[in-house]
Request: fold
Amino acid sequence: MPNRITDLFSIRYPLIQAGMIWNSGWRLASAVSNAGGLGLLGAGSMYPEVLREHIQKCKKATDKPFGVNVPMLYPDIDKIMKIIVDEGVKIVFTSAGNPKTYTAFLKENGISVVHVVSSVKFAMKAQEAGVDAVVAEGFEAGGHNGREETTTFTLIPMVKEKIDIPLIAAGGIATGKGMLAAMVLGADAVQVGSRFVASEEASSHRAFKEQVVAAQEGATQLTLKELAPVRLLKNKFFEDVMQLYTQQPTKEDLQKLLGRARAKRGMFEGDLEEGELEIGQIAGLIHDILPAATIVENMICEFNEAKTSIPSL
Reply:
C-alpha cells in the first residue's frame, strides 16, 4: 500500500497508532511497528528519563520505524526534545502547541515532524511552519480535542483542499472500512487511538480497557472546554463535572474539581469512578481486547475487502 505516508516513514501500511497518554508505552508502539504500521510512544505521561527508557526498550523490541508523540504543553519539553535527538528517534508527532517552536530544530536533526490539528486554520499554519505532514483530528476523537467540534467526515476534505503536504486522518476510525472512507475523502493515512487502547499491549489498566469494550453509543462526551476540551467516558467524575456546570463555575472551580493526575488515576490505575477516562466515540464499535498485531491485520484485511466491493456500488 505504498503512498506518501508509507514512503515518508518507511512503513508497510498507512496506519499509525496514536501516542496516547497512559496507553502508549514501548510494548504497544513496538507491536504496531512490527505489524507494519507506525507505533508512537506517548511522551505526555512520561517523565524525561521514563521516556528515554521506553525509547531504548522500543529499539530493542523492533527494528522497524517508530516515533514519539509530544504534547507541546509538556513542562519539561526541552529535556524531552533533547532525549529524542540523543536517542536517535527519527519521527516526532507534536500536538497542543505552536508547531513553529520545535519543527526547525527537529528537522535540523534529521527528524520527520508531524503536527496534530483540529481545524483548517491550524493545518495551514502547520504547513507554513515546515512540518512534513499533519494529522487532522475530528470531534469524534478521544482525549483532548478541538473546540470547533468539526467532525472527521467534514474536516478531512476541507483540510485536503488547503494543504499540499501529506494528510493523516484521525477521530472515529477503528475499522478497515473507516480507514478506506478517510482515504477516499483525501487522507493519505489514518491515525488510530481508541482501538489500540483495547489492545493487550496498551499500558493502560485492564479495567479501563474492559470499560471501553463495554461502552455503547452515547457513552462519551466532550467537556471541560474552558480548560482543555476532552472527550470522556461518562462516570462519577464526569457527572460531578456536569453537576458543577449547573452552578456556573469559574475556570478555577473547574480546575479545582479536576485536580491533578486525574487521567492517570482513571486510565493507568483503573479507578473507574473518580478517574478521567479518555476515549473516542468509536468505543461503541470496539467489542474485544486483542493483540495489536491482530488489530492491524484485521483493519488491513477489512480495508482491502471494502475496497474490492466499491465497484458493486
Remarks:
- The chain has 14 helices and eleven strands.
- The mean pLDDT is 96.
- The two ends are 23 Å apart (CA to CA).
- The first strand starts at residue 15 and ends at 17.
